[in-house]
Amino acid sequence: MKRVLIVTSASVTLVAIAAPRAQPGPEEPGAPAATAGSGSDLDSGSAAGSGSGSAAPANPYVDVPVEPPKPVKPPRMRDPRINMPEVLTTPTGWLLPAAVLYSRTALDTGGGLSSDNRVGLGDVAEFGIATTDRVRARAVPGAQTDQIEPYVTATFRMGVAESRLFPQQPGLVLGFVKSFERNHDGFMTRIAELTVVQSKHIGARTAIHLGAAFWDASLKGATTDTSLHDRATHTIGDQIRAFGGLEVHPLPRSEILIDLGWSPEFCYGCAGRDQIQLRPQLSWGVRYEVADWMHLESGVRIPDIGAANLLDAQIFGQVTFTSWALRHAVDDLK
Amino acid sequence: MKWLVLIVAVARTAAADPVLPRVVTAPTAWLTPAGSLVGSAALDHRGAGSLILSYGLGGLAAIEIGVASDLRECSPCAPVLLPHAAFRIGAHQDAWFDGQPALALAVETGFGASRASSAAAVASRVIGRVHVHGGALLVDARVGNPRLGPTLRPTAGIEMTPPRYPRTTLLADLAWEPRFEPTQPALEWLAGWGVRYQALHWGSIELDVRHREGEGLAGSTVLVRVNGVLPL
Lengths: 334, 232
Prior knowledge:
B: mainly beta; Porin
C-alpha cells in the first residue's frame, strides 16, 4: 500500500512538472501570437468576421504577461552629518559610522603632501592608512628641521559613540597609530602613538576634544640606536602628552577649528634626550562644507609652537571626501 | 564722546563688507566672500609685478596664494619675485555687536631659503564714505640662516570715496616689509597712495604710487593693478 502511494505521488509530481513544460510559454517560439498577431487579426476583422477559425481568438487573461509587483523601496533618508575623526591634526573621540569611507588629502607651504584614508567598522571602530608630514628631522643641533615624507602609518581606533551608554556621555576612542620603518639620510626611524580621547558637543555649535597620548619612537643609524622608551635616556614622562581641540560652528556650513598636538622630531647628530623629542604643534583653521560629501579645510600650522618661530608657520589646504556608498551597498544587500 | 556716538551711528548704516584684502600694501580685515575668488594682478614701471588669488572659505576665512615682488634683495637692491601663501580668519563688521569693526588675523608665509613670514591682526570699518584700517604686524625674515627675528610694527590704511565720484576711491596706507640684505634681513616701511576706479561691478583698476624707506622720491614705484571678484 505504502509503495503504491509513493509511486502515485511521484507520478503526480512528474505530471505537475511536465504539464507546464508541455505548453509553450508566451515568449517561446511556437506560441500562438499572443499580442501582436492576435491584435492585428482582431483589428482586421478577418478572424472574427469570417469565422474561418484560421486564427483562434486570443485570451487576454492568459496571454498578457503578468509581472509581479516590484517591492516599493522606502525613500532613503538623508545621510546624517559625519563627525570627523580628526580636528586638524589631532584625533577626536568620534568614529566614522559603519562602512563610511573617508579620504583626506592635504598640501602645505612646507612642501608637505599628506593623505589619510579610513573606513568605519561597525560603528565601533575604524581602520586607516595614511601618509603624514608631521615627523621632522634635523641633522645637527640648531640646524633647520626638514619633514620626513612620505611617512606611512596605519591607524586602528575603537570606541563608543557619544551618548551611547548614557546621556551626556562623551565619545570615547582608544586609538593606535603605527608607522612603517622609514629610512632618511641613512637613519632608520619609526613612531607609534597610543591615544585615548574624549569628545563632547557642548550645545549645538561647540565641541571640545581632550586626550592623552603615549608616544614611542626609535632612531637607528651608524652609531646610534635609541628609542623613546629607552629608560637610560628618557623618562616615562617624555612619552606622555596631553592634547586637545576645539570646534566652533558659527555658520551652518562653516567651522572654526583649533587644536594642539604633538609630533616627533629626530636629531641625527645630537646626543642623549635630544635625539628624539616631542614638539608641540598648534593649528587653527576653518572647515567649509562644500557638499555633504566634500569639505575644504585650510589654516595655519606651527610645527614647534615652543620655538615661536613665525618662519616655520605653514599654511595648509586640504580636501576631505566622505562617502556613504559602501554603507548603502551593504544596506541594500540586507 | 559725541564724535564716538556719531561714528557708531554712521557705521551702523554700513552695507556688506568690501572684499579686497589690501589697500595698496597694508592688509585690510575684509574677508573674501564664501565660495568666491578674488584676484589681483599688478605691474609696475620697473617691470615687477604680482599675481594673487584669494578664495573665500565659508564666510569665516580665506586662503591666498600668489607671487609678488614687494620684497627687495639688496646687492644692489632689486625687487625679487617670491611665491607666498596666506590664511586669513576673521569676523565681518557687526558680526558680534553693532559697531564692531571687521577683524582679521592673517598669517602669510613665503617659500625658499630667503623668505619672510608675517602675522597681522587688523581691524577695518566702513564709516560713511571712508574705510579705515589699522592693526599690528609681526614680521620675521631669513636670509639663509641669519634671521631678522619677530618684529612688531603698526600698519594703517584709509580709503575714501568722494560723493561726486561714487566709483572712484582714494587710497593711502603704511606697511612694513623685510628687505633681504646680503648678510642680514632688515625691515623697511612702505607708504602707498593711489586711486581705484570701480569700472565694473566685479572689477576695478588702480593706479598706485609706492615709496620705500631709504629710497628718494625718484625711486618711487608707480604700478597699475586690476582686481576682480568671481563668485564660483
